[in-house]
Amino acid sequence: MSPLRHRLIEDMKLAGLSPTTHVIYINAVRGLAAYYRRSPDQLSEEEVRAYLLKMREQGAARGTFKANHYGIQFLYRSTLNRDWALFSKKRSACPSRSASPMRSAMPKFAIFSLGSGTRSTKPAAPSSTPAVCGPERQRRWR
Fold it and tell me: pTM (2 decimals)?
């Protein structure tokens, strides 16, 4: 076992990651090293970025890509102490739904009655067939 791999495993243990996560992250780093046929500590940020882009372009599933990305990110951030822009959080051009002005202005206890659009602090009365449920849920109410 290489010293880098041994240190990566120790860092994952210190971080409290599960054994399954260890396997996933080690395989992600192994794939990166195999692609370039060099140790990951000898790769540049641009090489790592190109590898991740190639994974995406080859059609890697979102979950597979994210697991590889997080494994490689853990290696460079935690084990090698490299603070690369590639692994920094990027701000989205679109604001998140939870940050919408309507959600922040409305108290959590407010309930909108269907159709009128007015706020009420009283719970809505149950109906025989709720209008907000899909056909599967409506069948259960009958």
Answer: 0.62
